[in-house]
């Protein structure tokens, strides 16, 4: 059976004292092994990145960007293969994998603008004969640690911008579905990236801990669940590193009584059940304002959910695929059981669906739960499965309070026809990414992505303008060239 290894200094290596199974979640069968990097292997990757840094830092930004242009062309050329690799190991259907890849490519497009983005700031004559400017210099070796749910896109949030800014990079992808991530890294080398600039180590906590503690690593970008994000952020900070750690979510949609209910239902279906709810921006809670709106919403959702098809990634007529592992399937079913035991009503039950020909797959069908309350575990915790819960509120203020009280603050949305209500909502809601009749308000690549509260640890969001700042440090230079023969006197007062 194939073992997927690491990409260090431009070379593939399969050295591994330990390995782990990689599953095809549609069949439930093991498809390959992935090497789990030892401390020494990660140190080797960091050393390769450190060796590559001086020459790469001095390569003109325009030349670095040209490699990104070629990378973008290769990503488009190999889209089909990438989507297949994503589907085989994640389980998402090709149309959804194509959307993920497209969003990743848009981050590469943005990174192609590095010469413009890195131009800096200049002020002439800040004092007599004195000019001052700020430039944005690379940090050195930086690291990225990524989750399973966007194996193509999330790494593309990180290394294209980090690299184009002049850093070198060590990436540790999710060990659950590493193949598409590795394939894209190989494409970047095909585009002409010098060896050692991007290194990929597969692995688990052992590998991550080296990246968090090795003093040669200057910054860490992380995307994953909140408990791990918190650990990454505190450990990286304690070791003197810059860190941004994006965590989990519980995204609420408020459905106002004046909303176009049919439209809201269509939007909710895709946003709740697309890739089995395994998106950090998935809408997993609908807060209906007023019982009349709630009853209409639940009955329309129930009807609209009947034709939804869960099945293998390889059949593009399926609406969504399996969840990532057997353990995760059991966890999602456990949340449905607990909501039911706590008194909520399971209106559409997706537990144990029959998927002919794929009986071993990790499937959960689309599930709708009504009368959920804020004390329930299933409300408080991230389920990360195809489960939409309906909570009833008496007013928009009550609905907003629920969202503001929740520990997560990644994304949210309001469905309404009332501009004043929408404006009030976007102004006062304590969430980082807000949609007005837009269920998945994932910012485009030239804005930045990030939640509030326990959905993000750190100050700067991912990709877009924030990522240019995250992957560079500002240096401000003040310069004077005295005219020949002019001598300044000594001054002990603060320059003004
Ligand atoms: P995860 O936290 O289990 O794993 C993420 C990464 O951390 C992986 O590379 C993994 O190997 C590593 N890791 C896991 N346990 C670790 C430990 N104890 N010490 C050090 N490293 C460890 O997350 P996941 O299950 O792969 O991804 C799903 C989660 O990611 C969800 O919570 C989802 O909301 C979140 N997510 C957030 C965003 C965002 O932008 N906010 C985007 C995508 C996913």
Secondary structure layout plus pairing:
Blueprint: E1 3-4, E2 6-8, E3 11-13, E4 18-24, E5 29-36, H1 39-57, H2 61-77, H3 79-90, H4 94-111, H5 114-117, E6 121-127, E7 130-138, E8 141-145, H6 153-164, E9 168-172, H7 179-190, E10 198-200, H8 205-213, E11 217-223, H9 226-238, E12 242-246, E13 251-255, H10 261-273, E14 283-289, H11 291-305, H12 326-341, E15 345-348, E16 367-372, H13 377-380, E17 387-393, H14 396-405, E18 408-409, E19 411-415, H15 419-428, E20 433-436, E21 452-453, E22 456-457, H16 464-470, E23 472-480
Parallel strand pairs: 1-5, 8-9, 8-11, 9-10, 11-12, 13-14, 13-19, 14-17, 16-17, 19-20
Antiparallel strand pairs: 2-3, 4-5, 6-7, 7-23, 12-22, 15-16, 18-21
Helix pairs in contact: 1-8, 2-4, 2-7, 3-4, 3-7, 4-6, 10-11
Q: What small-molecule ligands were found?
A: nicotinamide-adenine-dinucleotide
Rounded to the nearest angstrom, the distance between the terminal CA atoms is: 70 Å
Would you state the CATH class of the largest domain?
A: Alpha Beta
Low-confidence segments, given as residue ranges, are: none
Strand content: 15-25%
The number of helical runs is 16
Content-based structural category: alpha/beta
How would you name the CATH homologous superfamily of the largest domain? Aldehyde Dehydrogenase, Chain A, domain 1
CATH architecture of the largest domain: 3-Layer(aba) Sandwich
Tell me roughly what share of residues is in helical segments.
25-40%
**What general outline do the C-alpha atoms trace?**
globular
- Provide the number of structural domains: 2
Biggest pleated-sheet summary? 7 strands, mixed
The third-level CATH topology of the largest domain is Aldehyde Dehydrogenase, Chain A, domain 1
């Amino acid at each position: 059976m194939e073992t997927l290894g690491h990409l260090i200094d431009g070379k593939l290596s399969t050295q591994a004292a330990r390995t782990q199974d990689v599953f095809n979640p549609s069949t439930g069968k093991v498809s390959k092994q992935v090497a789990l990097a030892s401390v020494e292997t990660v140190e080797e990757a960091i050393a390769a990145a450190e060796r590559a840094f001086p020459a790469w830092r001095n390569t003109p930004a325009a030349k670095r960007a040209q490699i990104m242009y070629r990378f973008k062309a290769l990503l488009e050329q190999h889209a089909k293969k990438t989507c297949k690799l994503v589907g085989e190991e994640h389980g998402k259907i090709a149309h959804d994998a194509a959307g993920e890849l497209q969003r990743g490519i848009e981050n590469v497009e943005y990174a192609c603008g590095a010469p413009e983005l890195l131009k800096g700031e200049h002020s002439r004559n800040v004092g007599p004969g004195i000019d001052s400017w700020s430039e944005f210099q690379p940090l050195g070796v930086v690291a990225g640690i990524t989750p399973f749910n966007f194996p193509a896109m999330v790494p593309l949030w990180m290394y294209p911008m980090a690299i184009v800014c002049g850093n070198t990079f060590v990436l540790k992808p999710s060990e659950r579905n590493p193949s598409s991530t590795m394939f894209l890294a190989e494409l970047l080398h095909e585009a002409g990236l010098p060896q050692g600039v991007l290194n990929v180590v597969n692995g688990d906590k052992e590998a991550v801990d080296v990246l968090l503690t090795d003093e040669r690593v200057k910054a860490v970008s992380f995307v994953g669940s909140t408990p791990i994000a918190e650990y990454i952020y505190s450990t990286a900070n304690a070791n003197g590193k810059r860190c941004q750690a994006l965590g989990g979510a519980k995204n609420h949609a408020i459905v106002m009584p004046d909303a176009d209910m049919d439209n809201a239902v269509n939007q909710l279906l895709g946003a709740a059940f697309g890739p089995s709810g395994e998106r950090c921006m998935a809408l997993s809670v609908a807060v209906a304002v007023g019982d009349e709106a709630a009853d209409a919403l639940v009955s329309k959702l129930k009807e609209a959910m009947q034709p939804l098809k869960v099945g293998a990634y390889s059949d593009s007529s399926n609406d969504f695929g399996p969840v990532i592992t057997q353990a995760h399937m059991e966890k999602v079913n456990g949340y449905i059981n607990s909501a039911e035991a706590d008194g909520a009503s399971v209106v559409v039950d997706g537990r144990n669906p029959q998927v002919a020909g794929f009986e071993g797959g990790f499937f959960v069908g689309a599930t709708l739960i009504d009368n959920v309350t804020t004390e329930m575990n299933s409300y408080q915790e991230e389920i990360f499965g195809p489960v939409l819960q309906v909570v009833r509120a008496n007013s928009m203020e009550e609905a907003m309070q629920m969202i503001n009280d929740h520990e997560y603050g990644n994304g949210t949305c309001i469905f309404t026809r009332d501009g004043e209500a929408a404006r009030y909502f976007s102004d006062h809601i304590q969430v980082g990414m807000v949609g007005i009749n837009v269920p998945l308000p994932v910012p485009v690549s030239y804005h930045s992505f990030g939640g509030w509260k326990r959905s993000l640890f750190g100050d700067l969001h991912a990709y877009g303008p924030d990522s240019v700042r995250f992957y560079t440090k500002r240096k401000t230079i003040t310069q004077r060239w005295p005219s020949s023969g002019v001598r300044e006197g000594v001054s002990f007062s603060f320059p003004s």
